[in-house]
Structures are given as C-alpha cells and as structure tokens.
Amino acid sequence: MKDNINKINIVEKICILVLFILIFYFINIYFFKKPKITLGTFTEIPKDLMDSGCTFYWNQSDLDKKEIALIDTFGSGALIVINGNSEKLKEVRNGDLLNFSNDKFEVKINIIKSTLNNNEGTYEEGILTVIGKDGESTSKNVLGYCGS
Q: Is residue 3 predicted with pLDDT exceeding 60?
C-alpha cells in the first residue's frame, strides 16, 4: 500500500512539473517573443502606382540603387514591403503626417526636413513607423522625393 502511495506522489509531481513547463512556455511565447516587423525594399513599381506622389528610400545607398522603401500616389494608396510581403495601403488623412493602413498594418511618416527641389518637388527626410495590428512597431529613417 505504501509503495502505491509513493508511485502516485511521483506521478503527481511529474504532472505538476510538466504543467509548470507548459505554462512557462506559453507565457514566454505570448508575452516575450512577439514576431519582429522587418522592412524591405522593391525595385519594380506596379502600374497602378506609376504616377507616384512620394518615393522614399531607407538610405542614400538604396536611393542610388533605386531600391524603394515606400511609394505613394497622393491619395490612391501606397506600397511597402513588410516581413517579406508587398503590402498595399490606403491613405488616411491626419494633418501634415503621411498615414497609410490596411487590415494588418498602419504606416506613419513624420517629415522632419523638407527642401524645395528645382521648383518641381521636394526632397524629404523623416521617420517611417510601422505598427502591426498586434501593437508591435518599428521605426526607421527615410529620405526621398515628393512631386514631379
């Protein structure tokens, strides 16, 4: 009888240990290891975005290579690569900020410096922020051109 009680205690202890391991695992996944938002570039401009309003790049090297971070059409929408996928976004008016969104992401561009470029457009520098619907976000500096 005493051997049966000891076996039950060992089984109970193992079950409790497994339960704690599973609880810790799920807490770790849901609260500490969210997927990271990664931002990419593209070189092929879709036909519906050919008449762009602004074209942004992550840095001067990307601009020189024509590797685009985000392109928008002043009202029709925008295109950006997030987590390896091309995301088409709709423009959302919010004062002077450039804001775009779709069902997965919100993108905000805060222009910090704007310089007239040959009376036809402007050279822009700013910060682009991507916010996922789960609340995760990332920000990067951008530079580019708006207008003709």
A: no
